[in-house]
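Wait, can you check?
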Amino acid sequence: MLNKLETGSHSFSSATETERWQRELASAIRDPSVLLGELKLLKLLEDKFFDKFAKFPLLVPWDYVRRMESGNPDDPLLKQVLPLSEENQVVANFTSDPLLESQFRRAEGILQKYQGRVLLILTGTCAIHCRYCFRKEYPYRDEPRRLEDWEKSLTVIREDETIDEIILSGGDPLVLTDRRLGEMFQLLEEIPHLDRLRIHTRLPIVLPTRITNRFINLLHSTRLKTILVVHANHPQEIVGECESALRMMTQSGITVLNQSVLLEGVNDNVDALEALSLQLIATGTIPYYLHQLDPVKGTAHFGVDVESGIAIIRELRKRLPGYAVPRYVQEQPGKLHKTVLA
C-alpha cells in the first residue's frame, strides 16, 4: 500500500520500497572491464583507456549500455562514456572552468550568467559520466546539500525581483527523489516574482525509468510553468523506454526541449543529427540547441570546428522543416546571451 506525503500544495504517493530507477542507478557500471566485457571489446583494455580516475570515474547505467552495438569500438554511445587516454593530453585553451562559472556565483549554489534567470546547483551527482562534461572539476563540495542549507541563497532570490526564472541543474537534479524535489518546488513557488521553473537533466535519456506518473504529477502540481530540458546527442539514444518516457511527458502537457553537443565521432554528420531531430519530434520533444563543445580540459578529442558545424546546420535546413532544426550555439563567458553560430 502506498503512503501519502503532503508537502505544502504538493500531494503525491510515496513508494514503500526503493524506486526502480534508484535500484538501476545503484547497479550502474563503474568498472571499464565490465563495460567492455559486456560489449565484447575487452581488447581495448590494452591501450585505449585508463581506469584510474580520482575525480571522474566511469559511470553508465545498464539500460544505456544495452543501446550500444556489441563489438563496435566506434559506437557513438560508447564514445560518450568510455574514458580514453586522450583525456590526459594537455591542449592550449582547454581549461578546468572554460565558462568561468566561478565568476558568476552570486551565492552558495547560485550561478547567474544571464538577465532574469539564475541556475541552482542542486547536486553534484549524475546518473552517467559524459566524458565531455564541462563541470568535471566543478567544486560541488562548496554548494548546499541539505534543504536548510539553501535558506541564505534563497533569500538572495527573494530580494531580487528581476529574477523570474529558476534553472535546476547540477550534476543532475533528477537524481534527487520526488520528495526532495517537491520540497524545493514549494520553497521556490512561494517567491511571488518567480514565474518559470526549468530543469536541465539527462536522466530521461540515460535512465528513463526515472520518469514516472508520480514525477509527472509533481511537475503539474506547481504553479510555476515547468520546462524540462533533456540532453540527447544521437538517435540511437531515443529508443525503447527513453522514447516512451519522452512521450509520457509531452503527452501530459510538459514542454520538453532537447540540447545536444556537437561531438567528433558521435554526431558530427548530417545523417545522425537529422535522424535525432526526427526521432525527437516524433515524441513531441523540440530540438532546441546544438552546442559547440565547451573547451574543458581533457575533451579536445571531441572537438569539431565551427565551419563544419555550420555546414551541417545548412544541410539540415535543406532536409528538415524549420522547427526540427536546432540552433547551433556557443556559450561564451561574459556575453549577455548564447552566441548563435547558425
